[in-house]
Design brief:
InterPro entries: GmrSD_N. It holds the Pfam family GmrSD_N. This is GmrSD restriction endonucleases N-terminal domain-containing protein. This protein is of the alpha+beta class. It has three domains: 241 residues, no CATH class; 191 residues, no CATH class; 136 residues, no CATH class. It is 43% helix and 9% strand. It is built from 26 helices and 16 strands. The two termini are 17 Å apart.
Length: 635
């Protein structure tokens, strides 16, 4: 390393440096991820003289670095999901020298939020809004109770001091109640006090006047706490940091990786982002985050994407190596991505509109990686001299393409093929798709052939199909399975997964009231088995109007009622099957058998599949081994 430990500074000095842009964040830093509770614990640790570990700064002096790399200010007014992005600080060759935070961003941001800013998170039992809404995500300031200490026996974090984030309304309500149980001191005020260095001056010029004003003069806990608070955050030199002075970017990146290998998981895309940003004409991070926010907040989509996913898709669509390697984000490749960025964005949007149209919603998309091959195919396949993504959501066109894509997609989700070794299967899928772009439709059969006999085999055997029918309501794969079974559903409608025989009918109290069950212990066990009535055989996709009319109505009364188009035939039942609750066992057995037959016609079958491990069903982007990355950076 090229640097040394500098003289420690106070928290107030650190906050001043943040406000003066003397402390900035390099683009390689991840988003702020600490919870409000973590911030409270940090402040409690400081008050109790616990060590908060040292920091690492990078002193940026080189004009070329200031000009060619992105730096960001600290986050002001944090709002979960909607204001998580640090504002960019424009730096040029003549910009003043500053320190970029290499290690300690989460702690410094937490200190800044607690002492100068706000933290907004969702109100309990309120749905996430589609846009930032102070009523649903109210800004909160950090307060300290000067009246009483925390009850450590009841507090899992074993805090001594009672720190809490309060909305303005919560604070005002606490003041109006005036029960003298709490006195909430806003932590912003500690930086507004006059500067006093001598402990007696702090006591007589700062602490006692405040206590007198708020009728706390006789409260010993309040006096000691406020005195300690002033000293800890204004006068004590507790910010110890190592100052890295090297102006070699590869060396600094190596230092960053090594110092950030522990703690909260660091997204590898955040490390690579710094390299991509430096080679992008404009703000690459803002471009990606804008796209992510648009897709998340759109009523047509609603999916939440990570930067990793967007970067991986960029590599896929530009025919680059899909592995996250430093070399894949050097100038030439980034320039290639940027030249196609407008089309890539449009393709990603249309891909997720298609996925939503296929019936998959954010809760049932068990593998976002499975969308990447679809995006590639839509991007590369041309119809009438235009990329397929342009017309794929036009219901008057590309009907066969949608059907074949949907069949592959449902099968891929049900088999969990995009689990472990995601990069390998993405590369293999791209090869198959690229070699079959001349085909009239999505090359499903060629993909099946490619992975026969491997642990990514898309074929099904009898045992696997039988197990699929045991999937329970609420399972992420439930919707994909029902859409695979019933592809004729109108793609312009929204469908809900509902129980045909209502679940309320299977409550223990209700089934025990039926005489026909009291007389048959074995049948009673069947009706009480949640794995039966809560599984696919008793589930169906209903549109909005059907779902509203169904509710908890008995199946026998609902089917055939005015305005209901659902029939025994559409449920794959023969006319002789009774829909009465008393005949649920035969209904279940007949429908399960019919669903198995329908599944056989919708998937590719084989005699027997090799057992797959649970790990194969996990959905994670492959991570590059740290040692490999370090070798690349050093190369």
């Amino acid at each position: 390393m090229a640097g040394q430990y500098e003289k420690a500074i106070s928290i107030k000095e650190a906050i001043d440096s943040i406000n003066n842009n003397d402390f900035l964040l390099p683009a390689i830093q991840r988003k702020f991820v600490w919870s409000s509770q973590q911030i409270c614990v940090l402040f409690d640790s400081i008050m109790r003289d616990f060590p908060i570990n040292s920091f690492m700064m990078w002193e940026v002096k080189d004009g070329e670095i200031k000009k060619n790399y992105k730096f960001y200010q600290f986050l002001k007014g944090y709002c979960k999901r909607f204001n998580e992005e640090n504002p960019e600080q424009i730096t040029n060759a003549s910009f003043k020298n500053f320190k970029a935070v290499i290690d300690g961003q989460q702690r410094l941001t937490s200190l800044y939020i607690g002492l100068c800013s706000t933290y907004a998170y969702k109100q309990p039992r309120v749905h996430w809004p589609s846009a930032q809404d102070d009523n649903k995500l109210p800004p909160r300031k950090l307060y300290l109770d000067l009246m009483t200490a925390e009850n450590r026996e009841e507090d899992e974090s074993l805090m001594k001091y009672r720190f809490k984030f309060l909305t303005e309304k919560q604070y005002q309500d606490s003041v109006s109640v005036n029960e003298k149980k709490h006195h909430w001191f806003c932590m912003h005020e500690v930086l507004n006090f006059a500067q006093e260095n001598d402990v007696d001056d702090v006591l007589f010029n700062v602490v006692m006047p405040y206590l007198d004003t708020h009728e706390l003069t006789d409260n010993t806990f309040a006096r000691k706490t406020l005195l300690k608070l002033y000293d800890a955050f204004r006068n004590k030199m507790i910010i110890h940091y190592f100052n890295e002075t090297s102006q070699q970017i590869d060396h600094v990146l190596d230092v960053f990786i090594r110092t950030n290998s522990g703690g909260t998981k660091l997204d590898f895309s955040d490390l690579l982002m710094s390299i991509a940003i430096s080679n992008w004409d404009g703000d690459f991070r803002k471009e990606i985050d804008t796209l992510v926010k648009e897709i998340h907040q759109s009523a047509e989509m609603g999916f939440y994407l990570s930067r990793d996913w967007v970067l991986k898709t960029c590599l896929m669509l530009t025919d680059a190596d899909v592995k996250f390697k430093v070399k894949n984000f050097k100038a030439e490749q980034v320039a290639n991505i940027q030249s196609q960025w407008s089309s890539i964005k449009d393709c990603i949007r249309e891909s997720f509109k298609l996925i939503r149209r296929l019936g998959i919603n954010p809760d049932s998309l068990t593998s976002k990686n499975a969308v990447i091959p679809i995006s590639y195919y839509l991007y590369k396949k041309t119809i009438n001299n235009s990329a397929l993504y342009v017309s794929i959501n036009n219901l008057a066109k590309a009907d066969e393409e949608r059907k074949t894509i949907s069949q592959w997609f449902y099968m891929a989700l049900l088999k969990g093929v995009f689990g472990g070794q995601a990069d390998t299967i993405l590369s293999g899928m791209r090869e198959v798709l690229r070699n079959n772009l001349h085909q009239s439709a999505f090359p499903l059969e060629q993909i099946i052939d490619k992975y026969k006999g491997s642990n990514k085999d898309l074929r099904f055997d009898a045992e696997y199909l039988d197990n699929l029918l045991d999937i329970q309501h609420g399972n992420g794969r439930c919707r994909a399975l029902l859409h695979l079974l019933f592809p004729e559903m109108n793609p312009t409608e929204t469908f809900h997964i509902d129980h045909l025989h209502p679940k309320d009918a299977f409550q223990k109290k209700k089934i025990k009231s039926h005489a026909f069950l009291k007389e048959d212990a074995e049948l009673m066990v069947f009706y009480a088995d949640v794995k039966k009535w809560n599984s696919i055989a008793n589930l169906h996709l209903l549109n909005d109007s059907q779902n509203m009319s169904k509710k908890a109505k008995e199946l026998v009364d609902w089917v055939g009622s005015p305005g209901i188009s659902v029939t025994k035939q559409s449920l794959l039942l023969t006319e002789d099957v009774s829909l009465a609750f008393s005949d649920f066992k035969r209904f279940y057995e007949q429908r399960r058998k019919a669903l198995i037959e329908r599944l056989r016609s919708r998937v590719y079958m084989t005699d027997m599949l090799a057992a797959q491990s649970i790990e194969d069903e996990l959905d994670e982007l492959d991570e590059l081994d740290e040692e490999v990355l370090e070798e690349e950076v050093a190369a």
